[in-house]
Write a structure and sequence with these properties.
By secondary structure, this protein is of the alpha/beta class. The longest helix is centred in the middle third of the chain and has 26 residues, at 72-97. β2 and β3 (128-134) form a beta hairpin. The chain contains eight helices and five strands. It has a five-stranded mixed sheet, covered by helices on one side. The protein has two domains: 2-88, no CATH class; 98-196, Nucleotidyltransferase, domain 5, CATH 3.30.420. InterPro entries: RNaseH-like_sf (IPR012337).
Length: 197
């Protein structure tokens, strides 16, 4: 009977197993901060593999450094699945409520889908921010199709066209022409937009 009770006790989870320990919270926080710094400073994700090993060597007496495990795959997923959505929502909130500049450029890679990079620049109380908004596939490079991609992006995020102060792009006729360009279509939505072609 005692042996069965002992076996049952050993196989039963205790309440402490259901709660994270402070050391685990510290490890998680360290991994998130590290992943954020990789993205913020444009460091290749492959560096994370080296940094994880380096932490253990540099701080052998630290329990957090010993458990720190944030290689390229984990760092990429933290940025893509945790940080990026929250940071993008912050950008979208700013674009919904204040004036901003819009900048776009098309990729011209012949081997894959062509994309339309959409960047924005706006001011906060402490600084000017230039941020990536999105990059939809745009295989047809007509002014109508490019504008439709912009229109769809603005609709998806409920961003008003009236908040667009200026538009920047390369100076080709599709983007900045006097007739039938992306710029003329933007001006139909917001006539006071300034162009920086």
């Amino acid at each position: 009977m005692h042996i069965k009770n002992l076996q049952a006790q050993n196989s039963t989870n205790t309440a402490s197993n259901f709660f994270t320990r402070p050391i685990d919270d510290g490890v998680t926080k360290s991994e998130v901060v590290f992943a954020y710094s990789i993205a913020e400073h444009n460091i290749p994700f492959s560096y994370a593999d080296h940094f994880t090993k380096l932490c253990k060597v540099m701080f052998p007496d630290s329990k957090i450094a010993t458990k720190f495990a944030c290689g390229r795959t984990k760092a990429t997923q933290i940025v893509k699945r945790s940080l990026a959505p929250a940071l993008q929502q912050d950008v979208i909130t700013n674009l919904r409520t204040q004036p901003f500049s819009l900048a776009i450029d098309e990729s011209n890679d012949r081997n894959t889908d062509k994309c339309l990079a959409i960047l924005v620049r706006y001011f906060t109380s402490d600084s000017a921010k230039t941020r990536f908004l999105t990059m939809p596939i745009c295989n047809i490079g007509t002014s109508q199709n490019i504008f439709d991609q912009l229109q769809q992006t603005f609709a998806n995020y409920t961003i008003p066209w009236t908040n667009v102060l200026s538009f920047m792009s390369d100076n080709c006729s599709v983007m900045m022409g006097k007739n039938n360009s992306v710029m003329t279509r933007i001006k139909e939505k917001s006539p006071d937009v300034f162009d920086f072609g």
